[in-house]
């Protein structure tokens, strides 16, 4: 069965290649970059529902493209995902941090590091959907990430690497940000964009492979 990764993220492709052979894997990103936002959502359940919604919209877009290209959905397994950082703000309410806003991303990322990351623990959530034929399974995997205390000078240096651009929460655990992290509790691949162990389990349970 052909697995279709519905994502433009190079990190997700690298991760999925760990469990799916190259000749059984193809990439078809969603056409629309417009996603519903998380502004004003202050409860865990509302954020979970919106994340599921975002992932479902990506899936609908990719399935529509496959149908337009004349593919039989019964011969494809489609994987879509979305990653967000959920930090704790004032009154301990959850705050969603997505990709830093362009073009003036530097000030936002500096604020996030000072306010939400330095010496604190936040969560990284990846919502995933896997569709095999008529069957569909949504999951949200959560990982706790604790950063060490960060001086302004270290934050400025990290911003100067430009690594935050295009990454949820404005950092890349797989890159230079690794040196800012004290502890990761949960799935590492989930933070980078795809929880591989859970993806493999779901593929197996839906008979979409692998193995
Ligand atoms: C927290 C964190 C995020 N990220 C990345 C993973 C995702 O590519 C990105 C989150 O953005 P997403 O909006 O989830 O995904 P995307 O726009 O890159 O791709 P698509 O919508 O087409 O699937 O942040 C890291 O690479 N490392 C990290 O440590």
Automatic annotation (TrEMBL):
Its cofactor is a divalent metal cation. GO terms for molecular function: dTTP diphosphatase activity; UTP diphosphatase activity. It is found in: Cytoplasm. It comes from Fuerstiella marisgermanici. Nucleoside triphosphate pyrophosphatase that hydrolyzes dTTP and UTP. May have a dual role in cell division arrest and in preventing the incorporation of modified nucleotides into cellular nucleic acids. Belongs to the Maf family. YhdE subfamily. This is dTTP/UTP pyrophosphatase. It is an enzyme of class 3 (hydrolase). The active site is at residue 82. GO terms for biological process: nucleotide metabolic process. Its EC number is 3.6.1.9. Keywords: Cytoplasm, Hydrolase, Nucleotide metabolism.
